[in-house]
């Protein structure tokens, strides 16, 4: 049962990733990113990493996706020229295939290596997050808040000027 669930979540993760790079609409791309991030959270749940799953949903699935959507919606797209097809897509496709080949080759050559997973205790992780890393997280949230407020002010000034 867990193998079937893993395959479904892996397909959703890859489908969301392909949706991010394949769509021309940036709102659809951000929603595809949200699908991919939520599927990764599901994979964390299969691996019994509940803390990572909830962090994935709250921070990446929630906060980062919302900030992306706000940035997209507050961007004045009428000021930018119409974006057409990029002529460098064959080079990008070749780089993607080369990267996939290297990753698949390293996976298949090291697939037989068995390592015991080493993860710190949840209490050690919580102590580190709330002591050593608390201030950097708060600073990052303040920077995102200031950027969001600045984008709103810039968008309002342009609307009032019209």
Descriptive overview:
With 162 residues, this protein is mainly alpha-helical. It contains six helices and no strands. The protein has a domain at 1-58. α2 packs antiparallel against α3. The longest helix has 28 residues, at 134-161. The protein is globular, with a radius of gyration of 20 Å. It starts with a helix and ends with a helix. The mean pLDDT is 81.
Q: Termini distance?
A: 59 Å
Number of helices: 6
Shape: globular
Characterize the largest beta sheet: strand count, sense, and whether it forms a barrel.
none
Mean pLDDT, nearest integer? 81
Rg, Å, rounded: 20 Å
Given helix and strand content, the structural type is mainly alpha
For this entry, what is the oligomeric state of its chains?
single chain
Write down the secondary-structure element order: HHHHHH
Uncertain spans, ≥5 residues at pLDDT below 50? none
Helix content: over 70%
Number of strands: 0
Beta-strand proportion: under 5%
Question: What secondary-structure arrangement, pairings included, does this model have?
Answer:
Blueprint: H1 2-22, H2 26-46, H3 50-74, H4 89-109, H5 122-132, H6 134-161
Question: What can be said about this structure in brief?
Answer:
This protein is an all-alpha fold and 162 residues long. 78% of the residues lie in helices and 0% in strands.
Any descriptors?
162 residues; mainly alpha; 6 helices; 0% strand; globular
